[in-house]
Amino acid sequence: MKLYIGKWQLPLSNTNKLVVKGLFVKKQLCYEISSNGCRVKIEIDWSNIIGIRAAMKKNEPGVLEVELSEPPKFYKELGQKDVGAHSQWVDGSDFTRGQASTCRRHFIMFPPTILDKHFERLIRFDERLFMLSQRPYPTFNVPYFHSQQFLQTALQTPFRNSNAPTSDADPSSTQLYTSDSNDPTS
Predict the structure, then answer these.
(1) What's the topology of domain 2-79+88-139?
(2) What is the pTM assigned to this prediction?
(3) pLDDT grade, residue 16 (50/70/90)?
(4) How many helices (H) and strands (E) in the chain?
(5) Which Pfam families does UniProt cross-reference here (predicted)?
(6) DSSP conformational letter for 117
């Protein structure tokens, strides 16, 4: 599994672990990264997604691309004292060498078949994301946030479609995938 944001990518090593989650109650996409006993995460509100595209072909890695209207939020985990206790997260800084704060496009590569059912659930659950998945990607030619003129057109377009799929999904979180550095398909 690989995560790319701008020129940054999650370094491949035996100590790095990436978990991608769809948080349906909070309506967020979340990347949790564990490395050498430390955990950090990026949270993206679905309302900040202005473009989304998935490529899922048989026997090939699945690819999810998202384009954002504003930078995501960054968090770091406070040291856990009890095994099994819930994590406590505090505001953190951009650990991607500034790329997630300036680059609006994120690229995640999943092992074959992992993305398929989770992406389908995501776009069934949220009508706006379904509509965005039907539009051309990327929505804006400039890959950086500091060019704000796109907001006037990209975010003011109404999203109404009576033909959008309905959802019977339970509004909870779903873990899209956990990478394992010991798994050769990751």
Answers:
(1) PH-domain like (2.30.29)
(2) 0.77
(3) confident
(4) 4, 11
(5) PH_TRF2_HOY1
(6) H
Q: For residue 9, count other CB atoms closer than 10 A to its CB.
A: 14
How crowded is residue 99: how many other Cβ atoms within 10 Å of its Cβ? Answer: 16
Which residue carries 């100590």 as its tokens? Answer: 15
How far is 100 from 90, CA to CA, in rounded Å? 18
The answer to whether the beta carbons of residues 29 and 68 sit under 8 Å apart is no
Cis omega (within 30 of 0) for bond into 138: yes
CB atoms within 10 A of CB 18: 20
- C-alpha R_g of the chain: 17
Q: Which two tokens stand for residue 96?
A: 């991607």
User: Each residue of 31-72: pLDDT tens digit?
Assistant: 999 988 899 999 999 999 999 999 999 999 999 999 999 999
Phi first, then psi: give them for residue 56, nearest 5 degrees. -135, 105
C-beta of residue 179 within 8 angstroms of C-beta of residue 19: yes
Listed by start position, the domains of the chain span 2-79+88-139
**From CA 111, how far away is CA 96, in angstroms rounded?**
23
Phi, psi angle pair for 73, to nearest 5°: -100, 145
Q: Find out whether 8 and 96 touch, Cβ atoms under 8 Å.
A: yes
- The pLDDT score that the predictor gives to residue 21 is 95
